[in-house]
Amino acid sequence: MIEIEHCQDDVKALLDRPIVLVGMMGVGKTTVGRLLATRLGWSFYDSDDEIVRSVGKSISEIFSEDGEPAFRDLERATIKHLLANGPCVISSGGGGITVSETAQAIKERSLCIWMDAGLPILLKRTEGSDRPLLMHGNPEEVLKNLLEKRRSHYAQAHIHALDDGLTPEEMVNRILLQIREHLYVSSSESEKEKFVPEAICLTVSLFDRSYPIFIGCGLLKQPDLWLAHDLQGRDAFVLTDYNVRERLTDSFVETLSPLMKSVSIMELAPGEQTKSFERFQAVLEWMIENGVKRDSVVFAVGGGVIGDLAGFASSSILRGIDFVQIPTTLLSQVDSSVGGKTGINSKSAKNMIGAFYQPRTVVIDLDSLASLPRREWLSGYAEIVKYGLIGDEDFFEWLESHGALMLGGRISEAIRAIESGCRMKAEIVCKDEREENGLRALLNFGHTFAHALESAAGYDGTLLHGEAVSIGMVLAARLSQRLGYLVQDDVNRIYNHLKSLGLKTEISDVAFKEDITADQLLLIMRKDKKASVSGLKFVVLKRIGQAVLESGVSENMVKELLEGSMK
After folding, report:
1. CATH number of the domain at 393-566, please?
2. Is position 402 annotated as part of the catalytic site?
3. Is 425 a catalytic residue?
């Protein structure tokens, strides 16, 4: 079981500077800050209280008599003084970090945490208050405008901690888990070997669609640790498949049930064939028959197929209800569960029908991987390698040294790899949620080839998604070299790493039930979502760690690569 006390001990042992809480009025900085300081055994300071104490006036009096600029000067000097106190917890006023000098001091001399909450929560918590900025005008409009102006300033914080309806105690627990994740990511390689956190949390920052990702062991046995208080007491709809149900879902439901009003379970067949119009309709009808309401919650317990289908159903039923992703395969943990892509397959292509719909929470319990066959581990590992290839050569180099240990089940390597993959994907999704500027498309490195191979194999288990991605990445690396980007040594490096761990690297490695040709694969590629009037688009590597989207790639060149991999 996860002990938050261990998390507190880690933070106290590893953090040697103050914690500064920033965020909008009403988010609970003072309440949470006091509780956090008590848990850590540190002193707590409220910058507003310190200002009042030093000048002998209330905040309202300072604003009305001296003006906001005078208050910001006092705030800057006060925070600068408090930062010299060593490890402590400081609650900063809502606008403090909007002053450049104050922001710089906070960022350089503390661990800054942005406490974030949605507008309805802020309105409820500030109702009837005498806060100076809410004294004139409609409080909702004032808060909305302030949040829009300040969001970019708050985003400078080292950590984004989301309050999505938490109690103060729950918020402290989440903050502690996120501090632990930040300290882990920031530690040196030697420190990472010694410091293996049992659970961590990070936030996918998407304005009012932000959500946390929890990673650790034993999480499914402790839903009170990750299930927001406002999601409890509702009707729950659990979607799973029969491979996962006996192994995980039934015991999870037994633990979840006391927290929910009711729990209904639907068991589906595993495999891509489940992502169909027929199954989609069956899920919706099941929800309706079991009394789904706007405040119901869907729990997707399974691999990527269950997550994609459950997410799309959640986006559609009653025009959208909350859902929680609980991925149970390595592939779904580092790929489909993060980012909000949901959907089903058409008869001619994969994932052609769907919606961008973000979950409320993602829960990655490493215990769910314990009984996975090695083939499933390898399938997920291919997606992890992708993150290093498209955006972080150092991470790819680490995988070259530690990938075998991770695939052997070593927890320290598994946490490092899963956290890195989720964090990198979250960062990309935050900048391009709906694939509008081309950045998120980089996550499709190797996938244009892979989706064609999967389609040709028939989605019947002959070729797993990660296996297809492994072959696709090798082909994309060769394409990158043919286009004048990658050097041959790097192509060999990618090929050798995947091959050495037992992943498929050539089309000839696939036991297709019927012979396929390069022309058949090209025909499938032309239906790919990334294709355009200018021809095929591919994600290619300029170097390991830097990917770009290449348009108008010659079909003859692609055909030659396909034929070469078939020999």
Report:
1. 1.20.1090.10
2. no
3. yes
Catalytic site residue 435?
yes
Q: Does the active-site annotation cover 478?
A: no
Q: pLDDT tens digit string along 409-428?
A: 888 899 999 999 999 999 99
Residue 65: φ, ψ to 5°: -90, -35
What are 172-212's pLDDT values in tens digits? 999 999 999 999 999 888 888 778 888 999 999 998 899 99
Give the residues across from 211 on adjacent strands.
Answer: 204
- DSSP annotation of 247 reads I
CATH architecture of 203-370: 3-Layer(aba) Sandwich (3.40)
SS3 of residue 263 by DSSP: strand
Of the listed 180, 192, 444, 478, which one is catalytic?
444
Catalytic residue among 319, 347, 514, 567: 319
Could you say which of 29, 341, 423, 537 is catalytic?
A: 341
Stretch (H or E) spanning 434: none
Catalytic choice (150, 423, 465, 537): 465
How far separated are the first and last CA of the chain, in Å rounded?
A: 51
Cα–Cα distance list, 156 to 100, 151, 208, 363, 448 (Å): 11, 9, 17, 26, 36
pTM comes to 0.93
